Amino acid sequence: MSNFAKVEKAAKGINRLQTGCMFLFANLLFTGFCLWGVYMLYVSVQLETKGKITEGIVVEMDASTTDGSTTYSPIIEFEANGETHSFKGNISSNPPQYSIGDRVDVRFDPDNPNTAQIDKGSERWLTPIILIPAMLIAAIIVNFFLIRAWRRGDSIDT
Question: Quick one: pLDDT at residue 1?
Fold first, then answer.
């Protein structure tokens, strides 16, 4: 075996190792986000089946800045079991969907009032409905190309 063939074989092995590591990392990432979506779906289903509805009030707008763009999430307070509880809405936007002082319906777990959501379809269902299928589709596409590259021993340029 010539030196060139040995170097080519070693390069192919390194490329396969790199592709395998990327495969593992990508799938752990997809799995983590998918499980997060499943958890959010579970919470929404639990609140739908055994949650109670009460009125809450927007007491604050939480500003979040990313890449120079600011979005706002409502902080809602509500009373349950004689105590005041608060939580942050699931969706942030610009312009804000809510204003301080707005009254909103809140769905909460009577056994654990710290588990609460704004009782609105987009707040409760939008994230899991988008997140789970998006992660599954992305995993299928990325895995197709990574498995193909791994079988060929191709280099993955990042």
Answer: 67
140, part of any domain? yes
Rounded Cα–Cα distance for residues 44 and 34 (Å): 15
- At 108, the pLDDT band (50, 70, 90 cuts) reads very high
Residue 7 corresponds to which tokens in the numbers above?
Answer: 């170097």
pTM: 0.72
Q: Report how far residue 125's alpha carbon sits from residue 90's, in angstroms, rounded to the nearest whole number.
A: 10
* Domain-located, residue 52: yes
pLDDT at residue 158 tops 60: no
| Predicted pLDDT of residue 126 | 85
Which helix (DSSP H) or strand (DSSP E) does residue 5 occupy? helix 3-50
Contacts of 22 (CB under 8 A, 6+ apart): 146, 156
Provide the domain count of the chain: 1
* Token pair in block for residue 119: 């009782």
Give me the domain span that covers residue 136. Answer: 20-152
